[in-house]
Specification:
The chain has helices spanning about 15-30, 35-40, 50-60, 65-85, 95-105, 120-125, 150-160, 175-180, 210-215; strands spanning about 5, 110-115, 135, 165-170, 185-190, 200. It is of the alpha/beta class. The chain has two domains: about 5-15 and about 90-215, Rossmann fold (3-Layer(aba) Sandwich); about 15-85, Orthogonal Bundle (DNA polymerase, domain 1), CATH 1.10.150.240. The longest helix has 18 residues, at about 65-85. The protein binds 1,6-di-O-phosphono-beta-D-glucopyranose and magnesium ion. Magnesium ion binds near residues 11, 44, 171, 172 and 175.
Length: about 220
């Protein structure tokens, strides 16, 4: 029987990808780089600095900026992104998320967050679900980002659950790879792509049966 749940944030709990896209697109435009939605897909689950590096490489400008300049660019993007999140509320939770968290709480199943986002605590608070999570892994403490398993191992251990006894929920391929490398059961959530390696895939959390899941 499984004993704990580890959730990604963007694409699982809420859809912040659309706001990341607007902010990155505007920053890229100022640098003379045009990105589209297909390119934006490749930024899902990737850290802020890695996303900037990918955009600069895409525009063939990867060797033009110092680390300090890149940090300033990433900060500029984040300032716009945070402004776009101003009106985020409970209505922005993805379908089935609230019900699932309530059911986990009723069964005393601990939950944690494994998100690459440094904005995760603020976003969860705005969504009104912060109290459901025993721990949010601080991405600043990580040596490597997804698909490395580190974030998922830390998230499971933070709620005192061995990775083999935990279930991870992810919408991105890099995340599924990280969950599997951590030795956890992987639930993929995506209506648009097949997540390779997921133990089970649904298009939304409304399709999940918590009893069936924990009895894996
Ligand atoms: P921030 P996740 C990820 O969230 C996003 O998918 C990715 O696009 C973003 O660059 C990353 O968080 C970092 O976010 O700039 O807020 O620190 O899917 O890992 O929850
Ligand atoms: Mg995600």
């Amino acid at each position: 029987m499984k004993k704990g749940f580890v959730f990604d944030l963007d694409g699982v709990i809420t859809d912040t990808a659309k706001f990341h896209y607007i902010a990155w697109k505007n920053l890229a435009k100022k640098l003379g780089i045009t990105i589209n939605e297909t390119f934006n897909e490749t930024l899902k689950g990737i850290s802020r600095m890695d996303s900037l590096d990918k955009i600069l490489a895409y525009g063939q400008r990867e060797n033009e900026f110092t680390t300090a300049e890149k940090e300033a660019l990433a900060q500029k993007k984040n300032d716009e992104y945070v402004k776009l999140l101003a009106d985020l509320s409970e209505t922005d939770l993805l379908p089935g998320v609230h019900d699932f968290l309530v059911q986990a709480k009723e069964r005393n199943i601990p939950c944690s967050i494994a998100s690459a986002s440094k904005n995760a605590p603020m976003i969860l608070e705005k969504l009104g679900v912060l109290d459901f999570f025993g721990h949010i892994v601080d991405p600043e403490t990580l040596k490597k980002g997804k698909p490395d398993p580190e974030i998922f191992v830390k998230a499971a251990e933070s709620i005192n659950v061995a990775p083999k006894d935990a279930i991870g929920f992810e919408d991105a391929q890099a995340g599924i790879e990280g969950i599997k490398a951590a030795g956890m059961y992987a639930v993929g959530i995506s209506a648009t792509e097949t997540l390779k390696g997921a133990d089970f895939q649904v298009t939304s959390m409304t399709e999940l049966d918590i009893e069936q899941l924990i009895n894996q």
